């Protein structure tokens, strides 16, 4: 246990760059900004969950709150862990060092799992604590039940973590058999994410035909996460036995999973780190090309070579591509039926630019592109290329990625909907403005707050300040015109055009300022 | 005109520590200057400032008469740098990496082909260059970095501990290449802990201690009648 704790402590210090934050002025600044961003997100989620729980109370369904919170937090943990399980558990740079030390694989696995547990505990806490507080104020005073609910917050992440890690492991094992391992890892991961999303949505719809509101909600909640049934009073167990069984089951599943993983850990890790055989043994044609093209090609290859980067930053683009393909093969009405949107035709006619913008804004590889250079940064720093050219190559990759989804979406929308000239114009230009803004914002933030000293690329791809800030600001830019339209009744299309102009001006200023710097 | 001229260089890190303090030296065409100092003395910081990896608070660095601060692109196009630990793009093959570097330096197709043939064969890397760099050993990465540094025939080679990780044959070949470069008008500035190599290879030497240059100039003038090792130990313990 002492060694596991030591490994965990080292991982936390390394992962959160605590020493650098304490010692470097620049890092302190970025840590403060990141702290503000995190606090804002926590406050937002906390408030959202309080409001959800209060809504259930108003419906007279306060007994459902514990099960609801367990189900939603477990689902969120499952989804988010799938995006990072492989990055934390397998393939990190410190593994060669750790495996050479006189420590058991089980201790390494335990420390990695505990680290992942810590990250997920906060997600569970943000969902369950506010819900629990509202529930306590509106339910019969059963202190043992309250206590069990709050204790179960510590156990909620365990099973979703195991399921997500198991799926991650399957992805590692299945893709290792293919020549182009990375591509298949991504395909399998997206397929798994899609499957989980589909199961969640279809189970949410499964109870709609039930007339009793309580029964309908209970069916939907347990459909998302069957174990949440143990927190429903309708269960066959007594009220107290349910949470006890949940805690027990979580511990048993987690323990067994850890034991199994520990036995073959080094093999799984080696598989995760195996590079694709497909890209080896290829002789390139020695042909001179421009420095920009060389940087662009290198950047694209780097992006595609990173399973973590594609999985996490490509999600919005993939989502837009899939939605566009669905719109091409089925009518808007049918798609609306599946997605539970009554007037899909009207919705898309009015909101298409903002829908595209929202999905595009989720994909911002530029926000981690500089940090991803990592220890290779010396190559760019010592090369005779300007900062502008380096930033351009990173922007170009981001814009290319957006362009693929954008073109598909525009084609689907123009062929499927009857849009007038102004609507087509809005569809074409507003989305482009958002794409440019997201990309420029990402690369500028990464230029301002780079992190080249990472051991695991997940640190910069998923949890770095530029990535979080770029996503948050982009989402605010998407939400602002919608809120102005809804709250102040401003005309939607004009508001979007105004926003697009503001974004283009902001992008130009940020870009020009970043390009003036002499050092990358 | 000096190929490299460092004047009163001072570099201060975030923690206020002066990593390099008022350092001045110059290297002419045909010089091989060894840069010697204990770990943490300021060698790598100086080399990184020379190649434009990081800025500096005071002083001036010129390469071929051009300031690295004012004309970084021009200066960088005249030099090549190999760090102590060659972290290359692991997802590229050796060929792709060298081709990428050649593109950044605008090297013509025929010149890069010639350089690849010459140095690929010399360092026995030709057959390995089709493999991804992630499969290379440390020495192979070092050799790939050397080939990529030579592909644009730089006027100034900056090498940080270039012999670490190289096998005896590659070490011999690198020394040969270094002499070849200076005999054709180039200059080399490299850090090393191997004093025997410095003594045999260099015509000039610079010794740094706690960020300050304590001796520099023609090797015979610096060390006098004693060996370089004896001189270094003497000034180090002083």
How would you characterize this protein structure?
- The complex is a heterodimer of chains A (520) and B (238).
- Chain A is mainly α and 520 residues long.
- Chain A has two domains: 2-273, no CATH class; 291-515, no CATH class.
- Helix content of chain A is 77%, strand content 0%.
- Chain A is globular, with a radius of gyration of 24 Å.
- Chain A starts with a helix and ends in a 5-residue tail after the last helix.
- The mean pLDDT of chain A is 85.
- Chain B is of the alpha/beta class and 238 residues long.
- Chain B has one domain (4-86, 154-237): 3-Layer(aba) Sandwich (Rossmann fold), CATH 3.40.50.
- Helices cover 38% and strands 25% of the residues of chain B.
- A six-stranded mixed beta sheet of chain B has the order 6-7-8-3-9-10, with helices on both faces.
- In chain B, helix 4 packs antiparallel against helix 5.
- Chain B is globular and about 50 Å long.
- Chain B starts with a strand and ends with a helix.
- The mean pLDDT of chain B is 93.
- Chains A and B meet through helix 13 and helix 19 of A and helix 2, helix 3 and helix 4 of B.
List the helices and strands and how they pair.
The complex is a heterodimer of chains A (520) and B (238).
Chain A: H1 2-15, H2 18-23, H3 25-58, H4 65-89, H5 95-100, H6 105-138, H7 143-152, H8 158-175, H9 181-206, H10 213-224, H11 241-263, H12 265-273, H13 291-305, H14 307-313, H15 315-329, H16 332-339, H17 344-362, H18 366-369, H19 377-381, H20 387-416, H21 421-448, H22 458-462, H23 465-488, H24 492-515
Helix pairs in contact in A: 1-6, 3-6, 3-23, 4-6, 4-8, 4-9, 4-10, 6-11, 7-11, 8-9, 8-11, 9-10, 13-20, 15-17, 15-20, 17-20, 17-21, 17-23, 20-21, 21-23, 21-24, 23-24
Chain B: E1 4-12, E2 18-27, E3 32-37, H1 43-50, E4 58-63, E5 66-67, H2 72-78, E6 79-82, H3 94-104, H4 109-122, H5 138-150, E7 156-160, H6 168-183, E8 187-191, H7 195-201, E9 204-209, E10 212-218, H8 219-223, H9 228-237
Parallel strand pairs in B: 3-8, 3-9, 6-7, 7-8
Antiparallel strand pairs in B: 1-2, 1-4, 4-5, 9-10
Helix pairs in contact in B: 3-5, 4-5
């Amino acid at each position: 246990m002492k060694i596991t704790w030591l490994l965990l402590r080292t991982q936390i210090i390394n992962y959160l760059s605590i020493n650098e934050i304490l010692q470097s002025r620049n890092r302190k600044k970025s840590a403060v900004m990141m702290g503000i961003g995190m606090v804002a997100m926590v406050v937002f989620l906390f408030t959202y969950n309080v409001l959800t729980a209060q809504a259930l109370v108003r419906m007279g369904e306060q007994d459902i709150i514990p099960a609801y919170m367990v189900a939603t937090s477990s689902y969120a943990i499952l989804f988010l862990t799938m995006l990072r399980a492989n990055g934390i558990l397998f393939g990190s740079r410190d593994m060669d060092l750790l495996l050479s030390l006189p420590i058991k694989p089980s201790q390494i696995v335990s420390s990695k799992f505990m680290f992942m547990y810590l990250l997920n505990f906060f997600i569970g806490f943000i969902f369950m604590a506010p819900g629990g507080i509202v529930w306590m104020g509106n339910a019969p005073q059963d202190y043992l039940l309250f206590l069990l609910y709050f204790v179960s917050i510590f156990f909620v992440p365990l099973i979703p973590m195991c399921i997500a890690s198991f799926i991650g492991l399957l992805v590692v094992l299945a893709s290792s058999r293919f020549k182009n391992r990375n591509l298949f890892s991504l395909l399998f991961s997206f397929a798994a994410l899609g499957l989980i999303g589909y199961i969640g949505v279809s189970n949410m719809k499964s109870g709609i035909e039930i007339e009793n509101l309580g029964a309908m909600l209970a069916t939907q909640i347990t459909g998302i996460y069957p174990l949440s049934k143990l927190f429903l009073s309708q269960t066959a167990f007594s009220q107290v036995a349910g949470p006890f069984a949940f805690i027990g089951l979580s511990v048993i599943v987690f323990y067994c999973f850890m034991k199994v993983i520990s036995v073959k850990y080094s093999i799984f890790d080696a598989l995760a780190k195996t590079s694709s055989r497909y890209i080896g043994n290829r002789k390139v044609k020695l042909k001179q090309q421009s420095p920009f093209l060389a940087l662009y090609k290198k950047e694209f290859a780097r992006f595609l070579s990173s399973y973590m980067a594609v999985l996490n930053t490509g999600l919005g683009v993939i989502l837009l591509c899939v939605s566009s393909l669905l719109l091409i093969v089925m009518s808007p009405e049918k798609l609306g039926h599946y997605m539970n949107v009554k007037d899909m035709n009207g919705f898309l006619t009015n909101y298409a630019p903002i829908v595209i913008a929202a999905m595009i804004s989720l994909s911002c590889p530029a926000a981690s592109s500089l940090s991803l250079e990592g220890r290779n940064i010396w190559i760019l720093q010592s090369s005779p290329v300007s900062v502008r050219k380096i930033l351009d190559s990173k922007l170009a990759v981001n814009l290319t990625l957006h362009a693929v989804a954008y073109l598909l979406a525009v084609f689907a929308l123009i062929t499927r909907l009857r849009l007038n000239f102004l609507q087509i114009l809005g569809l074409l230009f507003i989305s482009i403005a958002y794409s440019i803004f997201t990309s420029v914002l990402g690369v500028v933030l990464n230029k301002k707050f780079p992190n080249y000293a990472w051991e695991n690329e997940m640190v910069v791809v998923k949890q770095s300040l530029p990535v979080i800030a770029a996503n948050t600001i982009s989402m605010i830019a998407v939400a602002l015109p919608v809120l102005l339209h809804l709250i102040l009744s401003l005309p939607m299309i004009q508001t979007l055009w105004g926003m697009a102009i503001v974004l283009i001006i902001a992008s130009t200023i940020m870009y020009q300022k970043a390009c003036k710097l002499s050092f990358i | 005109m000096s190929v490299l001229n460092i004047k009163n260089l001072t570099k201060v890190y975030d923690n206020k520590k002066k990593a390099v303090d008022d350092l001045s030296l110059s290297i002419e065409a045909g010089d091989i200057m060894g840069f010697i100092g204990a770990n943490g003395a300021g060698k790598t910081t100086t080399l990184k400032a020379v190649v434009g990896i990081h800025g500096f608070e005071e002083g001036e660095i010129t390469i071929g008469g051009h300031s690295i601060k004012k004309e970084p692109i021009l200066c960088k196009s005249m030099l090549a740098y190999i760090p102590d630990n060659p972290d290359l793009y692991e997802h590229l093959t050796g060929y792709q990496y060298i081709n990428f570097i050649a593109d950044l330096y605008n090297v013509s197709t025929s010149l890069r082909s010639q350089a690849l043939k010459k140095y690929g064969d010399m360092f026995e890397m030709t057959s390995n260059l089709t493999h991804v760099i992630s499969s290379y050993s440390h020495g192979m990465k070092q050799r790939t970095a050397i080939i990529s540094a030579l592909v644009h025939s730089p006027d100034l080679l900056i090498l940080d501990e270039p012999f670490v990780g190289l096998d005896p044959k590659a070490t011999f070949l690198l020394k040969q290449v270094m002499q070849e470069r200076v005999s054709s008008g180039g200059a080399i500035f490299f850090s090393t802990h191997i004093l025997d190599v410095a003594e045999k290879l260099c015509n000039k030497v610079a010794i740094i201690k706690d960020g300050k240059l304590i001796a520099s100039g023609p090797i015979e003038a610096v060390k006098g009648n004693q060996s370089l090792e004896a001189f270094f130990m003497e000034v180090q313990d002083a």
